[in-house]
TrEMBL record:
<comment type="subunit">
    <text>Homohexamer; trimer of dimers.</text>
</comment>
<feature type="domain" description="Molybdopterin cofactor biosynthesis C (MoaC)">
    <location>
        <begin position="16"/>
        <end position="150"/>
    </location>
</feature>
<feature type="binding site">
    <location>
        <begin position="76"/>
        <end position="78"/>
    </location>
    <ligand>
        <name>substrate</name>
    </ligand>
</feature>
<dbReference type="InterPro" id="IPR023045">
    <property type="entry name" value="MoaC"/>
</dbReference>
<keyword id="KW-0501">Molybdenum cofactor biosynthesis</keyword>
<comment type="similarity">
    <text>Belongs to the MoaC family.</text>
</comment>
<feature type="active site">
    <location>
        <position position="128"/>
    </location>
</feature>
<dbReference type="GO" id="GO:0061799">
    <property type="term" value="F:cyclic pyranopterin monophosphate synthase activity"/>
</dbReference>
<dbReference type="InterPro" id="IPR050105">
    <property type="entry name" value="MoCo_biosynth_MoaA/MoaC"/>
</dbReference>
<dbReference type="InterPro" id="IPR002820">
    <property type="entry name" value="Mopterin_CF_biosynth-C_dom"/>
</dbReference>
<dbReference type="InterPro" id="IPR036522">
    <property type="entry name" value="MoaC_sf"/>
</dbReference>
<feature type="binding site">
    <location>
        <begin position="113"/>
        <end position="114"/>
    </location>
    <ligand>
        <name>substrate</name>
    </ligand>
</feature>
<protein>
    <recommendedName>
        <fullName>Cyclic pyranopterin monophosphate synthase</fullName>
        <ecNumber>4.6.1.17</ecNumber>
    </recommendedName>
</protein>
<dbReference type="GO" id="GO:0006777">
    <property type="term" value="P:Mo-molybdopterin cofactor biosynthetic process"/>
</dbReference>
<keyword id="KW-0456">Lyase</keyword>
<comment type="function">
    <text>Catalyzes the conversion of (8S)-3',8-cyclo-7,8-dihydroguanosine 5'-triphosphate to cyclic pyranopterin monophosphate (cPMP).</text>
</comment>
<dbReference type="Pfam" id="PF01967">
    <property type="entry name" value="MoaC"/>
</dbReference>
């Protein structure tokens, strides 16, 4: 296996990276995002009065389901057997929802894309469930904040 992983073959064509020579290790990644909104929209979510139902519950489920389908959404992304996916939503100040998604696997490649997919689909679901009352919501600060396992080692950013 080459020390340099690439999505291009010798002819410059896009290919899925061959991870067959990489060691199987426990891998984990955490991604975060934020949905900024009007304070009254956040109160509606927290009070459970959104017309579409339990915003946090539905968004959490959507994020978990999305993580499991990442390889179908992101070209050249490896399909991975996920051992755990958690999605946490909570109020962030008076005008936002903080989202944290953590994904785990034991495999030859990491789960950063699955964590990012979970966080982004969770944020999109919050937007979808509340857009009728707050069209000005913004999805912000989508990023990987931690990863562990694999040859490249651990990463933490907060």
């Amino acid at each position: 296996m080459s020390d340099r992983l690439t999505h291009f073959d010798a002819a410059g064509n896009a290919v899925m990276v061959d991870v067959g020579g990489k060691a199987v290790t426990a891998r984990e990644a955490t991604a975060k995002a934020r949905v900024a909104m009007r304070p009254e929209t956040l109160r509606m979510i927290l009070d459970g009065t959104a017309k579409k139902g339990d915003v946090f519950g539905v968004a959490r489920l959507a994020g978990i389901m999305a993580a499991k389908r990442t390889a179908e959404l992101i070209p050249l992304c490896h399909p991975l057997p996920l051992s755990a996916v958690t999605v946490d939503l909570q109020a962030d100040g008076a005008d936002g929802v903080a989202i944290t998604a953590t994904v785990k696997t034991t495999g030859r490649t990491g789960v950063e894309m699955e964590a990012l997919t979970a966080a982004s689909v969770t944020a999109l679901t919050v937007y979808d469930m509340c857009k009728a009352v707050d069209r000005g919501m913004r999805i912000e600060a989508l990023r990987v904040v931690a990863k562990s396992g694999g040859k490249s080692g651990d990463f933490r950013q907060e």
